[in-house]
Amino acid sequence: MANDIQTVRQVLKETCPRLLTHPNMVATGVGYKVTKGSKTGTLCIVCSVVKKLRPSELAPKDMLPADLDGIPTDVIETGRLRAFQSRTDRHRPAPGGVSIAHREVTAGTLGCLVKRGGQTLILSNNHVLANSNDANRGDAILQPGPVDGGKFPDDHIADLEDFVPISFVGPPSECNFARAVTAFLNAACRAIASKTRYRIVNIQAQNNRVDAAVAKPLEPNLVKDEILEIGKIKGLGQGELGLAIKKSGRTTGLTTGEILQVDVTANVQFGPGRIAQFTDQLVAGPMSQGWDSGSAVLDNDNRLVGLLFAGSDNSTIINRIEHVFSELNLSL
Question: Taking 70 as the threshold, does the pLDDT of residue 287 lie above it?
Fold first, then answer.
């Protein structure tokens, strides 16, 4: 009987070798038949194909029967089945969402491919590709990043092309005049028993809007214009409050979230004693971890809205993509 799973399994066992000889067939199994997009309660033999074809496109011998020994068949399109690589593996061509870094950096994420002046470039963060301002144009970029086993020259995939410098808050001031003034003011406060005290504060040279850099692939065929588990980018979007978003990153893979804050000003730490303030940022919830930096952030229509660069255990900080593209003169 069709509703007896043991019977269906036995029929599948007997017919599977023959079914897999059909062109276009990639898998067979036992499942519930789907009719007009809805799952029914009827057990069937499911035949998975690379592409569903119309009967007129098939030779009579390649047509699948409506049933096998009284067991219904169902055909679903799955595409070509292939083994997934780890995001920390060496990928050639390399898509967005995999490990990448400057040769002196541990690892980050290859965000996506962009264009500038007719050239195809890799987009990620300054701190991933340009070593937080400490790199030079032409430096080697490795895929995977060094922490994931990437070595020069074997895994050399691109050269650093350009980056937006990050402006850091400097170390305590060495200005003798400022020290003298604050000492005088603090002495005056003590003399009048005031609890107020003055201190020297360095002013950041300029506001940061992006942590972004681009690298030029050594050969065009070393990279792939899609993002793992997301696919191709379908244009530019804008990060708005409440927008559903997703990203594909080296550490946490495909994750989803929501823009919880806009117009954010944030102090971000880049190692011990190195802090930079970023303005006009987007904040989402906990959808990233270390080395996801550089991930492209998209909406549910696969429109690019941001570049992930920082976060904590419960927050993710994202550059607006319009600022990234403007400061590096990029396009899709």
Answer: yes
